[in-house]
């Protein structure tokens, strides 16, 4: 029975974690969830590492919503770099699920994108933990979480 | 009884740490504070790590005020990255409370923003240490420290 | 008998790993391959480290296809930095084979470039593992994987 | 009796270390200095770490003078990041004293700035080692090393 | 008898390592050289670390030639950052000798610059290992490897 950590922020304007948890429960029978909410993006790396090392999670999902300003982009870069370092320190996946505030042009579309990305990444998590061959079958196929997939290239 | 480290700089033009300490004392009975002031932003990461490892703080708040020039932005990025690395090395939160000099258009508004952000982040610290469920209740709700909160997205 | 890890993504639009594996098998008799597919670029560093430390690979190839947007460049930078850190943590080479979506002006040319780069880097891998002197013979000679080589400088 | 490491470069166009050493000797009776000169900025991080771990310095000052080109800014960023990492690895302060070549518009003014910044940071070092409360008294007061201080904000 | 690691790339268009090795042999009697060639800049950090930890080199020189495109600058930044991290992990100098393809306006001048920089850095290496006081005598004197030195500032 896998234990999945879910960390997210009070800064974000949509609760992606709730959607992901719903999707995880539907698709991974008996999965155990540990949720940890922090103020902002920069607090996510240590939250993820604590979930792995103190709560013994097998994998962590990290949800965030960077703002549209230049300063927000810098902050997102720091958080992503920290999340990668947390993974390297623990040999454990932390699946980053970030939606940038400028990825859609209305609040409704942004919320829809956030739900879809959260749910599709939850399915990636299930594959990573339970059926990694599913991912290899899709290698190089242009998968996009939350939007239409890209077209595979043909020679 | 929690022990909270507070590190800040002589470079900043406002004493945010004093406000945060006041707020912590009001909201976390018996909290113990260890204060450590360094010259500038780049000195904060090791100060935070020393507070955690040598003073045995349970959590650290790091206050800084990056200037408005491009060089100051680069410096803030180095400091923030270092603060995240200090957290990853210790599995301990360091709550970064930075106010950029260009976030308000008058000295009075800037000082007001700095006090508010310091106090609101002090409350986040209390929640992280004592009542983490408060933060999860606010997950994805658009909290902003020091300014008006953002609106949660509706589908 | 060398064991080579191959990690790649479902995000990419072409399966470079298949070409590289084909080339490795043709050129390194008895080589053992362990393949590991993850969702995106940011998941590659920990995948590479796990292949080295958990699967005991002697070397890893990491395949990715960053998109053409500014955000994709930032993401590629994070992934590359993480791949270098994974190498430093393990004293093991991870050969990064990235093709940026804007490196060719048609899908057909892009696919061709991706195949060529994957195959030529597979040959580099064989040299690194079996015959490192081949690489020293080519030191400073302007080798380019997937495109025409550059001209060596003459005084 | 404190032992202070001083590392600097042959690249810089002014010998800040000499000024700082003079100031340290005047203000910290019996201080012991270990000096280590390297070619350029990128060599400073390991020099600082060696001074701490091999020479057992209690604190290090790192002097550098980044050029004015974009490439020099990138190099300064790498060096600063490395200096922060050296501090985190050793729980020891490394006070970075960099003056960018474009901070003054004449050679004479630049030299004057470099001397002042070096001397004022030497005083910070004495406070950090001997009298840290002096720094806390100046918290949030807009100190600038080498130039006129900034004004503290009033509400 | 010092052991010096030399790592370089097949990507570069000039063999700087050969010049540096020649200069080292002329100026450091009995020096032992271990050479290691990798495909590109991003492969240098782990190569340097392996030379230090597996080949027991006392110091490493890392030669590279970043291209002139924006993507090449990003790649050079990753490599330089990795080289600094390799040094911090080993307390050993890795002297980076990079020449950017846009540093000269003809192939002949570029090759000349590359040879000069390689040779002058080889002399720095000898000083670092054998006579570090030579470097301190040149502290703050505006040394430039491969080009005319800068003028020391006068007050």
Give a quick rundown of the structure.
Chain A has 155 residues and is an alpha/beta fold.
List the helices and strands and how they pair.
The structure is a homopentamer of 155-residue chains.
Chain A: E1 3-9, H1 16-27, E2 32-38, H2 44-53, E3 59-64, H3 70-90, E4 94-98, H4 107-130, H5 132-137
Please characterize this protein's 3D structure.
The structure is a homopentamer of 155-residue chains. With 155 residues, chain A is of the alpha/beta class. The first copy, chain A, has five helices and four strands; from the N terminus they run E-H-E-H-E-H-E-H-H. In chain A, helix 1 runs parallel beside helix 4 (107-130) and helix 2 runs parallel beside helix 3. The termini of chain A are far apart. The model of chain A has no long low-confidence stretch (mean pLDDT 97). Chains in contact: A-B, A-C, B-D, C-E, D-E. The interface between B and D is large, with 43 and 36 residues.
Observed structural traits:
homopentamer, 155 residues, alpha/beta, four-stranded parallel β-sheet, 5 helices
Order of helices and strands of chain A: EHEHEHEHH
- The Cα radius of gyration of chain A reads 15 Å
| Oligomer class | homopentamer
The structural class of chain A is alpha/beta
Strand content of chain A: 15-25%
Number of helices of chain A: 5
N-end to C-end Cα span of chain A: 43 Å
Order of neighbouring strands in the sheet with most strands of chain A: 2-1-3-4
Helix content of chain A: 40-55%
Overall pLDDT metric of chain A: 97
Extended strand count of chain A: 4
């Amino acid at each position: 029975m896998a234990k999945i950590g879910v960390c997210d922020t009070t800064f974000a304007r949509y609760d992606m974690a709730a959607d992901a948890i719903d999707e995880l429960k539907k698709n991974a029978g008996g999965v155990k969830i540990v949720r940890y909410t922090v103020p902002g993006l920069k607090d996510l790396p240590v939250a993820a590492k604590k979930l792995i090392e103190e709560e013994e999670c097998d994998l962590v999902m990290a949800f965030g919503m960077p703002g549209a300003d230049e300063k927000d982009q810098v902050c997102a870069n720091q958080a992503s770099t920290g999340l990668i370092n947390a993974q390297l320190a623990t040999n454990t996946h932390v699946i980053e699920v970030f939606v940038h505030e400028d990825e859609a042009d209305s609040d409704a579309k942004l919320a829809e994108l956030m739900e879809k990305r959260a749910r599709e990444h939850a399915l990636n998590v299930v594959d990573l933990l339970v059926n990694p061959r599913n991912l290899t079958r899709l290698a190089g196929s242009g998968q996009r979480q939350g939007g239409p997939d890209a077209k595979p290239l043909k020679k």
